[in-house]
Amino acid sequence: MSLFFNYTLNGISNGMIYSALALALVLIFRATKIINFAQGAAGMMTTFIASSLLAHGVSYWWAFVLVLAIGFAFGAMTERILIRPLQGKSELNPVIVTIGLLVVLEGVAGAIYGNASRGFPAAYSQSGLTFGHSRIAFSHFDVFILVAVLVLMIAILILFRATTLGLRMRASAFAGEISRLLGVRVGILLTLGWGLAGIAGSLTGLLVAPTSSFGPYYMDLVLVYAFTGAVIGGLESPVGALIGGLVTGLCISYVGGYLGSGLEPMGALVLLMVALMARPEGLFSRPAARRV
Amino acid sequence: MLEIKDLSVSYGAVRALRSVSFEAQPGSITAVLGANGAGKTTLLRTISGLVRPRTGSVHFNGEELLGRRVETIARQGVAHVPEGRGIIEELTVEENLRLATLWCLKRRERQTAIEEILELFPRLMGFRHRHASTLSGGERQMLVLGRALISRPRLLLLDEPSLGLAPLVTAQLMGLLRDHATGTDVTVVLVEQNARSALSVSQHAVVLNLGEVVVSSSAAEVAADEGLRHHYLGF
Amino acid sequence: MLRHLLFATFGAGIMYLVTSNISLFDNYQVGQIASFVVVLAGLSLLTGVNGQISLGHGAFMAVGAYTTALLMTHTQWNFILELLSAVGAAGVAGLLIGIPATRLKGPYLAGMTLLFALALPPIADKWPNTFGGDQGLTMTTPNAPGTLSPQEWLAWIQIGGALIVLVLLANLLHSRYGRTLRAVRDDEIAASLAGINVARTKVLAFVISAGCAGLAGAFLGLSTGVVNTGAFPLTLSIQLLAAMVLGGTGSLIGMVWGGILLVYLPQWSTSLSGHFNLGSGVSAYLATIIFGAVLIVAMIAAPNGIQGGLRWAWRRLPGSGSGVGGSGSSAAPGAPTPVLTDE
């Protein structure tokens, strides 16, 4: 029972991280129908930059903020330089381009920083919280993860729901041509969406690094878990990304806990296949809109 | 005034428009008529910048529109209501309307403008916070028309507004269009397959066939020409 | 059919002259190229001809390699049978992945196969007693006949396998089934209206393609003499995709270019980084970076790959016909593949 409790806590903490990266995937997918397979690698790259900043004596929080900004700029540049030229081509082209970017980033990181996994500091203590005399598998850092991802989610939701910029972004994501006819500068909003996704990706990288073997490939599994979560969530809403990420995090935590960590990716694959078989459009997506 | 000169458009080897020229006057409705595939929709899409022509010019109030970006053309007062799915289903009715005000109205004026449009279409009033995907065909058409009018356009391009509507609703819609056009100095270009109802509200008519202008004259003359009606308009 | 066989015999003759006149190490590399041609040809069929993407072909190779290695460890089966089992096992894995894939569009399929590529290697680590753990399992090639050196003999097995696979796939593409594959790629709805069972076609394409990967995995295991999980990382799957794109998506003969790149690009980049004193850290990753960069550039600038470029150049040579002769036209669909070009 207490094992189950701890696996659940672990699943929630990991699930929040997957949610953040799933959000990045969703932000891009619903606007451009592209899965950015390089999103995790971009977060890996910016986390390496953070690690360099920290090594040069920059304080953690300054590095944190700077790296989120770099993530934004990198996401926006990716859209402008690599994705924009593919407009109107087959849907496989952007998939292959983001895959290409994934290996380029991992190769560059490996060439600069080496393959050996290195440490990355956590913002807060990673030892479990204690209640009375029992210690649970949830640390101050896990609380920070929870808060940071929720703040990001809420900020994105407020942006979308309560600002005219968010209205423009949603409109251009859902109906680019009609939005342009209404005077909305769709191009710049797509770039902005990739930038926001870049922030979410960078945040994920910073949150994962302390608890994993931080190296060029440490985001690979996080990316596919986030993809699984995003698909479960329907790939179109931030709330779906949150729920899908949590579901994925919990399932993987139970699989890893009871069956062994080597089976975690296979568990995720089974989960993804079940989700795709049950409803290719995602479990939490709305039914196809009524057409006249 | 909208002046179109010598406009030709090709999709690959298919020529959709061949040297089309006509003028549309402010404060009046110009109906563009013709069968399926005559080039009507292409004509509107070219004016609003969605399609790049091979040759020709599109002047509105003396300014060349061709070569500008779609959103720039929209911001010059050109409202294009595309055929069929012109609403954004994922947004609410009010959000659909607000989106069209963002570039042209100040923050304070937006809500007033939205209320004005909702008063113009009372059916939409109760649905203002509903997703546009829940609207019926007629309600959708009201919404796209309201969304086009809210930016107070100087050139209004309407593609098949009566498509799929009941005759009574079509009549209402046309009446509203006529009132709007004649009361202001807006230039209206109305593309319709339903030639009878379009001619009943317009002052000028252009008949297209296979991408070419067959006739460009007053709506009354076109309506009176039995051969023309029989050959190209089907009534 | 006859033309493909003639071409294969011709290829075998050339390869005989080549393998008997080059060093043992070059034989090893020629054999590796042939092994990669096998997996790339299958991938080309899947992506180029049938329009399905896979980022998991490295994992199918792992299935094939481990199958043959396990049979070699535990049984005394015939060598050919052991290789065919690799094809069969990988084909079954392809079936399991291919069935859900029938309902998926490009990005979803890419994500699922990516997860597959990452999920399979840890399985082998999970049961080290069965799969040999880090050490892996050993694989041995049967004794060479006559005076042939073991390296030459292995290269011959691999080249022979590659030629057989190429002939079979080329015939397949020219059969009714090849047209079916292309019809499904071009327009699934139209294909199903024409009476084609779209789901079955797509699954079968996956099975065939995965089977090729399984054989290639077994071949590569024979080359290195050992199979371990480190041999099939995600980067391998992505490099396969890159090599396939570079060779010319949808072409079969173009996959020879892809195989050459997969074997020689890492060497070239090592000597390149040595030449510029870039250090061992860089040289280990330079090939990966080049593969990725080339994927990006190819998608944006030249979607038809090396073979497409050669065809293009050939057509512009004065006095040449429209085809490239027996080899090129036998394998490649005539038109550039819509999968990777403008629609």
What does this entry look like structurally?
The complex is a heterotrimer of chains A (about 290), B (about 240) and C (about 350). Chain A is mainly alpha-helical and about 290 residues long. Chain A has one domain (about 1-115, about 135-280): Orthogonal Bundle (ABC transporter involved in vitamin B12 uptake, BtuC), CATH 1.10.3470. Chain A has helices at about 1-30, 40-55, 60-85, 90-115, 140-160, 165-175, 175-180, 185-210, 220-230, 240-260, 265-280, and strands at about 130, 135-140. Chain A has a two-stranded antiparallel ribbon. The model of chain A is unreliable at about 280-290 (pLDDT under 50). With about 240 residues, chain B is of the alpha/beta class. Chain B has one domain (about 1-90, about 155-235): 3-Layer(aba) Sandwich (Rossmann fold), CATH 3.40.50.300. In chain B, about 40% of the residues lie in helices and about 25% in strands. Chain B is built from ten helices and ten strands. Chain B has helices spanning about 40-45, 70-75, 95-100, 105-120, 120-125, 135-150, 165-185, 195-200, 220-225, 225-235; strands spanning about 1-10, 15-25, 30-35, 55-60, 65, 80, 155-160, 185-190, 205-210, 210-220. In chain B, the strands form two sheets. In chain B, strands 6-7-8-3-9-10 form a six-stranded mixed β-sheet, sandwiched between helices. Chain C has one domain. Chain C has helices at about 1-20, 25-50, 55-75, 80-100, 105-125, 130, 150-175, 175-185, 190-195, 200-225, 235-250, 255-275, 280-300, 305-315, 325-330; strands spanning about 135-140, 225. In chain C, strands 1-2 form a two-stranded antiparallel ribbon. The longest helix of chain C has 27 residues, at about 200-225. Residues about 320-343 of chain C have low confidence and may be disordered. Classes of the chains: A mainly alpha (about 290), B alpha/beta (about 240), C mainly alpha (about 350). At the A-C interface, helix 4, helix 9 and helix 11 of A face helix 5, helix 11 and helix 13 of C.
